[in-house]
Amino acid sequence: MQNFLRNDDLGKLILRLTVGVLILFHGLHKILNPASLDFISKQLTGIDLPPVLAYGVYLGEVVAPLMVIFGLFSRLGGLLIFGNMIFALLLAHSDQLFTFTNTGGWALELQGFYLFSGLAIFFLGSGRWAVRQD
């Protein structure tokens, strides 16, 4: 029983599934509503970046979560999620960086969760329960 309670691979699987599934919902929304990329394109042009980079959201919110969920190059998937969240914070949430909610929480808790969880997956790797251990 003690070995089960100290199972790093199970912890990695739970983290991978939680982050991967939750961020994949955001990617599926963008697939089903491609007009949502217009906002991202406008934000990119506002900082002199080409609007075609908006399609990178599919890497960070569809491909990367699938990599993480299945444990297939999950370190790269975690890094892509981390990068995706850096762009999200810079483009859409920079004005909320130092703000709190009415209940005292950080206004960017969800974004922070994805940002740091992606980074954790990058450092931890997939664990044993994966298509490909890394």
UniProtKB/TrEMBL annotation:
TM segments?
13-32, 52-69, 76-93, 113-131
Pfam families for this protein: DoxX
Its keywords, alphabetically, are: Cell membrane, Membrane, Transmembrane, Transmembrane helix
Q: Classify the main location.
A: membrane
Source domain of life is: Bacteria
Of the GO CC terms on this record, one is:
plasma membrane
- What is the annotated localization of this protein? Cell membrane
Q: How does it sit in the membrane?
A: Multi-pass membrane protein
- Report if keyword Cell membrane is assigned: yes
Family membership noted in the UniProt record: Belongs to the DoxX family.
Which PANTHER family would you find in this protein's record?
Answer: INNER MEMBRANE PROTEIN YPHA-RELATED, OXIDOREDUCTASE CATD-RELATED
Q: What is this protein called?
A: DoxX
Species whose genome carries this gene:
Nitrosospira multiformis (strain ATCC 25196 / NCIMB 11849 / C 71)
Starting at the broadest rank, the lineage of the source organism is:
Bacteria, Pseudomonadati, Pseudomonadota, Betaproteobacteria, Nitrosomonadales
